[in-house]
Amino acid sequence: LTSKLEHSLINYLGVELAPSITRHGVLIDVDGVGILLIGESGIGKSETALELVKRGHRLVADDAVIIKRVTDNRLVGEAPEVIRHLMEIRGVGIINIEHMYGVSAILKSKSVDLIVQMELWDDSKEYDRLGTEEGWLDILDVRVPRIIVPVRPGRNLAIIMEVAARNARLKSMGYNAFNELMERRSNIYK
């Protein structure tokens, strides 16, 4: 019993005393991958997260995310207590995700595994179409993979986030579809 208590206390204090920072964004668990949506105010982060919740994924935080470095290479995010489980939808107002969608639609905390930077589509900008540009964002001295997703009317951002989560998981397990494409291409031209 004493060793269990000691272990629990060490874990609790490790999280509570961990270095932390608050970031503007939305944190959502998509198929077990913690995605931090960032971007300018009004870009559609909350609406994208709401669509993901409707599709069975779980909201951690909307608008403000407290991010803690719990180990040398792991970040965990959660909502400030005052806005936990709440979401602002412009034109509708404040909604309570837990009350509206049930307890299975929310999480208290989640690791930050991928950062998706949402930005307005710019026709003059070249966007990564092959997935070869590895982007990173440093938060509390932890490098987190980052992708940039251009936003414009007609793009289904919820599906894009689901695909980004699954692709990030595959990459973390060593699989890269671009590498497979290059291998197939080289086999054709042998």
Tags for this model:
190 residues, alpha+beta, eight-stranded mixed beta sheet, two-stranded antiparallel ribbon, globular
Give the H and E element order.
Answer: HEEHEEEEHEEEEHH
Total helices: the number is 5
| SS-based class | alpha+beta
Can you give the helix content as a percent range? 25-40%
Low-confidence stretches: none
Strands, total number: 10
What this model shows, in words?
The chain has 190 residues and is an alpha+beta fold. The chain is 31% helix and 37% strand. It is built from five helices and ten strands. The chain has an eight-stranded mixed beta sheet with strand order 7-4-3-1-2-8-10-9. Strands 5-6 form a two-stranded antiparallel sheet. It starts with a helix and ends with a helix.
Topology readout:
Elements: H1 2-16, E1 20-30, E2 33-39, H2 45-54, E3 58-71, E4 74-78, E5 86-89, E6 93-96, H3 97-101, E7 109-111, E8 114-120, E9 135-139, E10 142-151, H4 157-172, H5 177-188
Parallel strand pairs: 2-8, 8-10
Antiparallel strand pairs: 1-2, 1-3, 3-4, 4-7, 5-6, 9-10
Helix pairs in contact: 2-4
